[in-house]
Amino acid sequence: MSRSDRPTKADVARLAKVSTATVSYVLNDAKGVSISAQTRETVQRAARQLGYRPNLAARNLARGGSGVVLYIVPRVALGELVIEVGSGMTTALARHGVMSLVVFETEDDRQVGEALSSFDPVAVTSVFPLSGGALAAVEAAGVPRFHLGSSELQSVGQLHLLTGEMRVDHLVERGHRQLAFAYTESPKWRPLGDYWLTGLEAAARARDLPDLRVATVRPHDAAATVTGWVEAGVTAVCAQNDETAFVVQHGIREAGLRCPEDLAVMGVDAIPLGEVAAPPLTTVAFDADVIVEIAIAVLLRSLGYQVPDPPPDTGLARVIARRST
Residue-wise pLDDT tens for the chain (325 aa)? Predict the structure, then answer.
């Protein structure tokens, strides 16, 4: 949607049947103005229906401050990508007078809620989509949120779909058609596994491959799991992350099988230990600098700042091919 196509406060006012001033009071949570709860709900509903997003740069200027963006780090592991992106965004936003605060998700999501109430952020951003209590808190606060799969940042691509395409293409080129997916045994990291699996399943469907076989792989029963996969015709496994791929490789050795001759293995996140796995692990690496460069340009434009167009989304991710495939 171009800037001129975006809904305005006047559009919200027409739909809600109120004045534009009332829309401004409600959406900016103006103090000292008496507005009924019913009118507030009508205006907020109209804004949601139209997909209205205020010019946050102008709002911050009116408030006399540069604003704060919350960068949320989820309770999942992805090598160093999340930290590298957060660090890069903090520096890049600071150049435009915007403060970025890093907030780590906790089990009860209290940190996110407290940050929202304490800092009144102009936006919330993250590498992955929010979920659970963190998502509920952001939605309740009415703060715009951006992640690499949101509509505003589609130019960065959706990492799970991009990664799924890369992994499936790599394996199909090597003759594999029956694939499996290995979840880590840690329940708290299951959402990230679901995220990667969704991308793999989309890529497999697009190539008319059989449904992926899925299992949680643990050190004590990895041999039984990989044996069952091989007996079912699986020839390659995509693991939730590199650490889980190491557990799959352990199971292959314990079962007296060979990697990749009997079962190929592919990870994601390119941690350094992958180079010394047995055999060295094929994986997908992400370029945090490219992600930050594109995301910052799109994020600032979406918030109303005048910045150049984002650069092309090339070099975002790449396959590091090693002997495990």
Answer: 444 456 778 888 899 999 888 887 787 666 567 888 899 899 888 988 887 766 555 555 454 444 788 888 776 545 577 777 888 888 888 777 778 888 887 766 678 888 887 777 878 888 776 777 777 888 887 777 776 555 455 544 577 888 999 999 999 999 999 999 999 988 777 877 888 999 999 999 999 999 999 999 999 999 999 999 999 999 999 999 999 999 999 999 999 999 999 999 999 989 899 999 999 999 999 887 877 777 777 777 766 666 666 666 567 789 999 999 9
Q: Are strands 145-147 and 179-183 parallel, antiparallel or unpaired?
A: unpaired
Q: Is the dihedral of CA 292, 298, 300, 306 positive or negative?
A: positive
Residue reference for tokens 């990667």: 196
Single-letter residue type at 45 = R
Which candidate, 140, 107, 307, places its Cα nearest to that of 124? 140
Q: Is the peptide bond before 279 cis (omega within 30 degrees of 0)?
A: yes
